[in-house]
Amino acid sequence: MLYKIKRSVSVLFVIGALNACKTTQPTAQDNGNLTEVTPVAPIAPAAPVKEEKVVPDWVAKKGPYNPSFSTAFDLLHTQLKVSFDWEKQRMSGDAVLTLQPHFYTQNEVILDAKNFDIHKIELTDKKQNVLQSLDYSYDSLQITIALDKDYTRKDIFGLHISYTAKPNERQTSGSEAITSDKGLYFINPLGDEIGKPQQIWTQGETSANSCWFPTFDHPNVKMKQDIFMTVQDKYVTLSNGRLVSQKKNSNGTRTDHWKQEQPHSVYLTMMAVGDYAVVKDEWRGKEVSYYVEPEYEKYARTIFGNTPEMLEFFSNKFQYEYPWDKYSQIIIRDFVSGAMENTSASTFMEAVQVDDREKLDQDWDFIVAHELFHHWFGDLVTTESWANLPLNESWANYSEYLWREYKHGKDEADFNLQSELESYLAESEMKQEPLIRYHYMNKEDMFDSHSYAKGGYTLNLLRNTIGDDAFFEGAALYLKNNAFKAAEIAHLRIAFEEVTGQDLNWFFDQWFMKAGHPDILVMEKFSGNTLKLTVQQRQDPEYTPIYRIPTKVQFLWKDGKKEDRAIVLDKEQQTFSFMLDTKPDLVIFDPAHIIPGVISHTKSTDAYLIQAKRAENVMHRVEALENLGNSIIADPSLVSELNTYLKDPFWGIRETAAGLFDGYQGTGDLTETKAILKNLVVNDPNSSVRATALTTLGGISEDFIPIAKQAMNDSSYMVVATALYAVSEIEGPSVIPTVEKFEEARNPNIVFVSSMIYGQFGTKGKLEWYDKKLAEMNDQFRQYMFRTMTGYIITLETEEEKSQATDIILKYSTNSGASTDTKVAAYQAISPILESETVNKRVSEALSKEKDQQVLDALKSQGY
């Protein structure tokens, strides 16, 4: 599906730096540096005591069985003719659906259609000639149409439906992943919203396209389509497939005809309307186009320019050429999620729209790869039901790994993959579900870190279990066998089994069909020439399987010798014995770092030193460094060892090492450390490393100010913002003239830090700047701006200033396009000056007209 926003936008201090990837590795606690951990034998009670077992909070509540949609009709084709009423936020629609009974004889059709005004329904023939009007009933969600006779699977007929869609006039809902199910969205329809263009766009997943055209709104229903969009001639349109024609009308409008000639799922149908610059590339003779707001035209290739290379890479890797007529990508305002893989026309949230300088801090290639890859896994082959969503999302999630591995190397891919594991493990504390879930409570719940993060991590495990050649050949066979069809998890398993000749049910059963993950404790003991490795699977077998895991153990010696041994975990506790000439200096369990779970393996400092230097997987190196970092106060000699990693070829290791010294209060000599960190601040090619090094220096260096001031000229907004904030904490208001040099910058890192500094020092005359910055921001960023603005409002002294601040706050809190959260943040920002009678009166009047009860409830709960 669409891209669930699991990564927050990279905004320093306020939202959190996306690039600061936390990479903590679980370890056995309270065991110091021991290499052997002896489990304590349980003490048997004197007499059996019957106690009711407490069910863990994370055990999922089982919902009803959710089958795939039963297909009474094949939807062969949908023709839509649409036009828009911006003022009423309605759409006039004229639909012709071409239907054929799937197998059984039918005499009625039940279509999904949410909150329409239906004007007429008629039977048509193959040429769309009207034959007769049909009787129907309608309950605002579904139309039940009585056919004129019984139709067999040999019959083809059409339904002509004239209607008006009213997306804003129905009760809507949403979820964490998809915040609204309105289906059709009018953005700034009256043109009165501050800093926002007028747009129309649609979002179909999961079942919201039936909010703007009648259909069978289920993922296993596929159709071809023609859409005729009539819009004001000044606007650009986009839809699935090819733009066949554009016809100018006498009333200043234009009708664009978009044709999708290959079958795709209903939820993948899209439209978009707005003022866009269109920048075109090409791949193998097909159009590749980027739709951005006009001021970002020169940055379109900055944002999307790697798309042709991605098309080539994925087409070759999976032995299936990109199957659709074109590939367009469009950035839209106020999107309800991160991005969406509409067939041949993906939509992206506005945060993706960056300039060259902003891309230094936030490269959105991973989301571009994700949505493009869906055009194989999701669009070409589509999940048969939402219960099988990982067939779409796990693959798209893993495409991010594949692209990084290809473009930037395995270390980059593995370093970022760790965040997927951590995302799932964090969610697992609240719930643990099978990846394939037929008993979900709500289909929207499927869009979580299980389907995305754990699913992608599990595919990486499968790849490493069966080997690269088998993995990619199996995936290619799955695409070939199920192209333009819907599939379930068994189709994927069978494809891999056909390629490998192995029964892989054991793998799919434990990883896709069962909940939970392994919690593994590893203990080692060397005696004589034998190393005994005891491995416990500590997860509760009542709720989580005891896994079968083929893996390896790696032994390393200081002299450079290395040896791998294969083992298979399949019991709650196992001891593996290895005959070795000498005791290894380091034992690494799961050296490829591919098991989706928690692994605890305590090691000595000497072992971690070897692991940091010689482990093949970057995350084992990170694990070692973080454990060594925990010991540098107790063992100052480690400082010089860790300094070497500040010069590592991989930026993730340099950043990790830099962070280890943050706030260091030990007795180690940091002279060399500081020199290296200063060099990183100035010369490191990665902005995240520069920012981390600068932050660390601020806590350990007496002569921090000169390097921080040098960093104020950095090409990275994140580094500049870090420097400004750090200097302000030390030098106070004298930093203000430097901050003012960046007042024209629109980057959130700079704006939020400037706002905090102005508030901290009560800088006079900045209300107009706040007003300008608020106008430039989207709704989400305005929330954060209001929170930083509170500190500034506290400093206001005169009634004139307070009145001006109130003008600004009310402009946004009463704006028709403001979200609930933004309104609440705005009213909270003005709260420090409510003692002013004039301010209080104006705010009270505004709240008396507020129609959003959630705003009123939120403010009341906070004592407003």
Automatic annotation (TrEMBL):
Gene3D superfamilies, sorted: Leucine-rich Repeat Variant (1.25.10.10), Neutral Protease Domain 2 (1.10.390.10), tricorn interacting facor f3 domain (2.60.40.1730)
An annotated GO BP: peptide catabolic process
Domain of life, source organism: Bacteria
GO molecular function, one term: metalloaminopeptidase activity
Cofactor(s) needed: Zn(2+)
UniProt domain Peptidase M1 membrane alanine aminopeptidase: residue ranges: 306-511
EC number(s) from the headed UniProt entry: 3.4.11.2
Domain Aminopeptidase N-like N-terminal: 77-268
GO cellular component: cytoplasm; extracellular space; membrane
Catalytic activity: Release of an N-terminal amino acid, Xaa-|-Yaa- from a peptide, amide or arylamide. Xaa is preferably Ala, but may be most amino acids including Pro (slow action). When a terminal hydrophobic residue is followed by a prolyl residue, the two may be released as an intact Xaa-Pro dipeptide
InterPro entries recorded: Aminopeptidase_N-like_N, Aminopeptidase_N-like_N_sf, ARM-like, ARM-type_fold, Peptidase_M1, Peptidase_M1_aminopeptidases, Peptidase_M1_dom, Peptidase_M4/M1_CTD_sf
Keywords recorded for this protein, A-Z: Aminopeptidase, Hydrolase, Metal-binding, Metalloprotease, Protease, Zinc
Pfam families registered for this protein in UniProt: HEAT_2, Peptidase_M1, Peptidase_M1_N
Family recorded in the similarity comment: Belongs to the peptidase M1 family.
Protein name: Aminopeptidase N
Species for this entry: Flammeovirga aprica JL-4
High-level lineage: Bacteria, Pseudomonadati, Bacteroidota, Cytophagia, Cytophagales
